[in-house]
Amino acid sequence: MKRADEFERLYRTYFGRVCKLFVREGVPDDVARDLAQDVFMRFYQRMDQFRREAEWTYLRAIARNHLMDYLRMQHASKRGGVTVSLDAAPGLVANVSDLTPDPIDQMSSLRRAEQLQAAIEELPKGMRTVVLMFLEGLTYHEIATLARISPDAVKSRLRDARRRLREQLATDAREEDEEI
Fold first, then answer.
1. CATH T-level topology, domain 1-81
2. Which CATH number among 3.40.190.10, 3.20.20.370, 1.10.10.10, 1.20.140.10 corresponds to the domain 104-180?
3. What is the mean pLDDT of the chain?
4. Biggest CA pair distance of the chain
5. Residues sharing a CB contact under 8 Å with residue 120, sequence separation 6 or more, in sequence order
């Protein structure tokens, strides 16, 4: 199936669900539609990373991350924060060619990132949700509010998730060493 055809199929299948996800979180309908469009733009840009399985799970993760960005931006604007475009501040952005890592380091980092992503996907839903929000930079209080749990439950789930991830990644590393 061509990339464009696959994207169109996924868009037609899941656009409504993505909108409903935003509306359930209290986002107005018109804003929810705009956010859903953004989610599908992000998805299209990352389609090469999509493994063609668990379509809704992948889209939902992008949508939740985008929702967190939206909520953070709303929270910042209420505090009087100022949004600065990176295009408007050329001196703040480093030259990308100066930051390009060695290809071997890239492969190693990519392999570790894939292992971490797979390990996160294996976590129970409650832990996985809290970990993903934490990785997006949300505070314990923000996570607790969005997940509708106490801040202590957030800390507990993160502690347990870290323990499981360490164990899983250590097991993966031992298995890799045995293969070499």
1. Rna Polymerase Sigma Factor; Chain: A (1.10.1740)
2. 1.10.10.10
3. 80
4. 55
5. 128, 131, 132, 165
| Torsion 124-74-22-3 (CA) sign | negative
* Report field, pTM of the whole predicted structure over 0.70: no
Domain boundaries, the chain: 1-81, 104-180
Q: Dump pLDDT digits (tens) for 17-33.
A: 999 989 988 888 899 99
| Residue 90, both tokens | 């050329």
Decide if 1-81 and 104-180 have a common fold: no
What pLDDT does residue 88 have? 52
Whose structure tokens read 């929810």? 32
For residues 7 and 122, what is the distance between their CA atoms, to the nearest angstrom?
Answer: 26
Give 47-80 pLDDT, tens digit per residue: 777 767 778 888 888 899 888 888 888 776 555 5
